[in-house]
Each structure stands twice: as C-alpha cells, then as structure tokens.
Amino acid sequence: MADSIARQFARWSANLKYEDLPPEVVDKVRSLIMVHMVSAVFGAQMKTGLDTIHMVKQEEGKPDGATIIFDGSKATRIGATYANSEIIHLPGLWDQFRMITHPGVSLIPAGIVNAELEKASGKQLITALVAGYELSTRMAEDLVPSTAARGFRPAPIYHTMGAAVIAAKLMNLNEEGMMSAIAIAANCTSGLFESGRSGGGETGVHDPNAARQGVFSAMVAREGHIKASEQVIEGPAGFLNAFIGSHTGKLSYTFEGPLQADLSKITEGLGKRFQLMDLMYRMYDNAGYNHAPINMMVEMREKYGINPDDVEEVIVTMNYIETLYPSPAFPNAPANPPRVGATHWYVAHALVNGGFPQVGGPTFGPTGDDLRADKKVEEFTLNKVTITAAHDYPMFSPKAVIRMKDGRNFTGDYPYERLCWDYDGLVERLRASGPKYPLGGQAGLDSFIDLCRTVDQMDSIEPLLKATTKA
Asked: Which of 66, 135, 152, 378 shows the smallest number of beta carbons within 10 Å?
C-alpha cells in the first residue's frame, strides 16, 4: 500500500536540502520574500495594520520574541506571525494561485518569524518555504472550486498546513514531527465564505489565522506528544472529505477537465516538478482574476492606438467560475451584471484611463474616494462591456474582442503564464510602487530589491528585518 499523502509530504519536507533546489526555484522564492515584505511595509501604515500591531503588542508582546515588520517591536512566535500576516494582507501585493488562494500571505510570515527565532540562514528559510509552498499549491491545484462550493474560503484551508510545514522545517523537526505538524494543522484550518457573501469582514482574519494556526501546530508537534493520523488528508473522515466532500477526489466543480481528481498527482514528482513555479503576482488591490483583463486592456489600447471614445463594444471571455465569484454554488451576483466593482468595471477603467492604480505606484484617472465615482468609467462599464463565461476554459487566461464604431475589430488574449514572473520580471513591475514606498521611496525600494537577491547568502535573516524596520 502506498504511503499516505501526509506521509509523503512529511518525508520529503523533512529531508529536503537547499542543494536539492533548482536555481529557478530559488529565484522564485527570493521574489516571493521580496514582494510580501514590501507589502508588509505598506500595510503597516494602514489603520487596520496599526490596530493589529497595537493589539498584538498589548496582548502578545515579548521582549525576546520575533520582530513585527516595520514597527520593529517584538512579540510571541504566534503573535508576530499574526501581525505580520495581517499587514502583508492589507495592501494586496501578494502571490496568487488557483483563484481564491494566495499562499504567501500566510506562508511568508510563518517563514520569517521562525527563521528569526530559530536563527536560521537564508538558505534554510528558502528551503522551508519551498516545502510549505509545495504542499499548499499541490493540495489546492485541482480542489479549490470544490472547496469553495462547500462554503469554505480556500486560502486559509490550504495554507494552514503549508505554514505548519514551514515552521516545522525551520524547527528542524524530523519526519514524525513533520507528520504531527501536518495532522494538527489539518485539524486547525477554517474560514467561511459567508462573511464576504453577506458583507461581513471576517475574511480579514482568515489568512493571519491560517499563519498563526500553522505555526501553533508546529509548536505543538515539537513537544512530541501527539501522534499523527496517518491518513489525515485522504481518510474517510479526513481533510478531503471535510473540505471537498469526497475522500476519493470526486469534485463538484472544476476550472477545466473531469470532475474527478487523481489524488496520486498531489505528490507526484515531489522534488522534480515544483508547483510553486506557477504562482502569479498581484500588483493591484483587487481579485486576482481581474489582473489579466486589466493588463490585456492596457496592452490592446497601446498596441492598436485605441481611443476609448471610438469603442462600440468590448467582449471579454473568461472561465465561468471567475464570473461567479466566489463559487457557482452561491455567486455574489448570480447574473453577473455589469456594475462598479465587477470585472466589467476593471476592464472599462483600464481601457478608459490607460491602466489601474498599482499599490504605491502611478495612478490612472481619479484616485481615492473618486476612483469608483468616475462617471466615464461607469458609463463605459454599463453600456459597452460584456463578460462571456466559458466552461472548460483555462483559468486567468481571458480573451477579448474590441469592436470599434468604424467597423474595425481588434482581438487580444492574456494567458495565465504571462503573470508568472521570475525575479527580474517582478522587479520590472514592482519598481512602479517605489514613489510611495514608506522606507525611502524609490531609492529605498531599489535597495531592498537588491538585498533580496542575496537572501541565500545570508547567515541570518537579520538584514531583511533591519531593512524593513522604521528608523
């Protein structure tokens, strides 16, 4: 009988070495560290970020604890993890994987905090992050739509175990310790969609709690008292049964392909094929499925010299699940009408104003409270943009036809792969956030970008923390 899914991950993770990692994987992880720590610096300025930092310092302050990014104060292991995850989450500069998951919001703070406290090197941090990212992304790849259909928000569901693996790896737990961390984390995961569906704000704690619970799971596992359930993931009453409704891989929804997941694929090629290479990056503070349509419109406007006043109609084709967020089982807007805040609106804004505001970067059209009150964009949204839902169609890979009043038609597409940048590709886009970067503006951001290129040469992560702490 084959080893269980958790056992395969535990054995691989516990034995993974930096030397096992291809250069392109190391490059990707350096970029993940960079973008999430930059997001934390921005997030520490926001009211919710300031409130969270204050709460953690009051309730979890610990002079010899872990560093809260930007603020520089120290807190307990799980307190600092929670605070750092929250401030990363707020601005929206994240990674993204398989709609409704953004692993780094939970995984990067788990890595940074535990690397600091365990006095790990940059190589050890990178190695631990690879292990946690592989579990999170491989588990989520085929299962996200079915998890969402059960009312669970996939991000915290899949990233709690990933955060546990990262913390356990940095604590140098062996295979059995890693098994315990994974099993405990599988029992600690949670996060519901009802808050977002009905206008609540509980989603704001989902990712920080996933990070916190993952680290907590590793802490408990390190004590050595809890024996893991061998089939905690695929057992009849395990993780998969709870969060997709089937322990055999039967799916209720899928972006494309059959309604049956091959569970053996989850661990197939561990250490040879790295799923984390398929992570994309978000530069705008909105849902990930809007980013490709925004970029596509900007590109088509520039390529064809399109004057928005001369446009008759814009037709964008997307995967049907993206048009029924968060799930076809209970979409926020069942008929998906054109409206402010829908994908129609982001398409219109990008075409009318030549872009969409990047976090900390250049603005396009009205800003602040006037952003959603742009009447020209609203009229374009309501009268000229059509979103077509396509079944069995690639995720995050829209196509478009722009029909002009003079009878000309222009076509474009934006495959998902174009959002999966390497380090230099991310830098090319992230530098636009420099003018408003709170630690020295453009020069400060450029300095941090250069520093992150050397993470794997660091004996400790102290330089990263020092560079992202206010004077």
From this structure: 378
- Whether 458 and 431 map to the same domain: the answer is yes
The pLDDT of residue 191: 95
Residue-range definition of the domain harbouring residue 384: 288-419
Strand (E) or helix (H) holding 11: helix 5-15
Residue 392 zone, left/alpha/beta (φ > 0; ψ -120 to 50; rest): left
Of the residues 419, 434, 455, the one at which a domain ends: 419
Give, in order, the Cα–Cα distances in Å from 389 to each of 154, 190, 283, 392.
Answer: 22, 30, 24, 10
Q: What pLDDT score was predicted for residue 336?
A: 87
Strands 399-404 and 409-413: antiparallel
Alpha-carbon distance of 207 to 159, in angstroms, equals 8
Residues 27 and 176 reside in one and the same domain:
yes
In the chain, how many domains are there? Answer: 2
Does the predicted TM-score (pTM) go above 0.70?
yes
37, 210 Cβ separation under 8 angstroms = no
**pLDDT-flagged residues of the chain (< 70):** 1
DSSP 247-283: SS-B-S--SSS-SB--GGGGTTTTTTS-GGGG-EE--
Q: How many CB atoms lie within 10 A of CB 77?
A: 23
Query: Would you state the pLDDT for residue 1?
Result: 60
* Same domain membership, residue 383 and residue 258: no
Q: What is the pLDDT of residue 18?
A: 98
CATH of the domain at 329: 3.30.1330.120
Do residues 211 and 273 share a domain?
A: yes
SS3 350: helix
Which tens digits make up the pLDDT trace of 253-293? 999 999 999 999 999 999 999 999 999 999 999 999 999 99
Residues 382 and 432 in one domain: no
Q: What is the predicted pLDDT for the residue at 99? A: 86
Taking each helix axis from N to C terminus, what angle separates 206-223 and 154-170, rounded to the nearest 10 degrees?
Answer: 40
Asked whether residue 371 falls in the same domain as residue 395, the answer is yes
Q: Report d(CA 174, CA 463) in Å as an integer.
A: 28
**Last residue of a domain, which of 399, 419, 439?**
419
